[in-house]
Amino acid sequence: MNSRHMARDQALDGWLQRVNELCGRFCAKALGDAFAGRIEQYQSGALQMSFNDIAHARLYRTERELAAGEDKGYFAVFQLEGRAQMAQDTQRIVLAPGDITLIDAARPSEFEYGESSRQLSLILPREVVERSLRFSGVRSCARIAAHTPVAVLANSLVRESARQEGLSLAESEATLDALLSLLRPALAGVDSDDDPHERLFRRAVTLIDRRLCEPELSPELIAREIGVSLRGLYRMFARRQLVVAQYIRNRRLDFCAEALRHAGSELKLSALGYAWGFSDSSYFSTAFKARFGVSPGEYRKRYRPEA
């Protein structure tokens, strides 16, 4: 191997190591000797984004890398300069400057870069995406064109966010919510309101939100109330990559988290869990930590005003 190839391979390994630290496990291949790669991180509160400058490289994630890494949720990819090919499942798109797409970090994906390309990649926690797009599936690897109002506003928001120093956790989470609200029309599934299955699904999730506080809320109750078989209810949610019982639990936890962000320290955690349908306080704490990474008490401390 000549010195040029050795230098290229060393540069590729160094860049890939940094990518893996910030974005989870990937593999990479240089597409010729002109490879170049550099990645910089920006983090403030809940905002975790990286600026990636790449040329002549293929970055990809297979089932093997997925098994070895943690679920990073979704990547919102903003093409800043140059072009890039993105692929996931059967979808393959080309991003030009100003274009945006969403990539599911829990599924295999592939990115290919020719001439110099610059991207901003923002990590969107899975629970945040699910909360925002809960009425339909998420369209991954769908190109949101730069000229659309949604893309113009979203690009402006994310670029300005990266210039801000010291955003509080509440401010950074509000920024994520605002970004997903902007992108929702382009990212949500394309089911029609005229589709009877879609109407039934909307009835189901509306019923869930209305009766979340009731401990007896269950898939059996929901199926009976909306007039479908239990198996039909499971299929309806599975079409959107959702599990009924898990969806109910996550909705309860989301409302508990919202209460902790806004309530004072006098709120009893056991009473909060009970109010949102958790009859077992130990299970509530375990489920909350599994979803948000910290216990309910630690989560509340994040939002407690400084004395």
TrEMBL record:
Species: Geopseudomonas guangdongensis
Keyword tags: DNA-binding, Transcription, Transcription regulation
SUPFAM superfamilies xrefs: Homeodomain-like
Signal peptide span: none
InterPro entries, A to Z: AraC-bd_2, AraC_XylS_family_regulators, Homeodomain-like_sf, HTH_AraC, Tscrpt_reg_AraC-type_HTH
Free-text function comment from the UniProt entry: Regulatory protein of the TOL plasmid xyl operons. XylS activates the xylXYZLTEGFJQKIH operon required for the degradation of toluene, m-xylene and p-xylene.
Record flagged with keyword Transcription: yes
Keyword match Glycosyltransferase: no
GO MF assignments: DNA-binding transcription factor activity; sequence-specific DNA binding
Domain HTH araC/xylS-type: 202-302
Name this polypeptide is given: AraC family transcriptional regulator, positive regulator of tynA and feaB
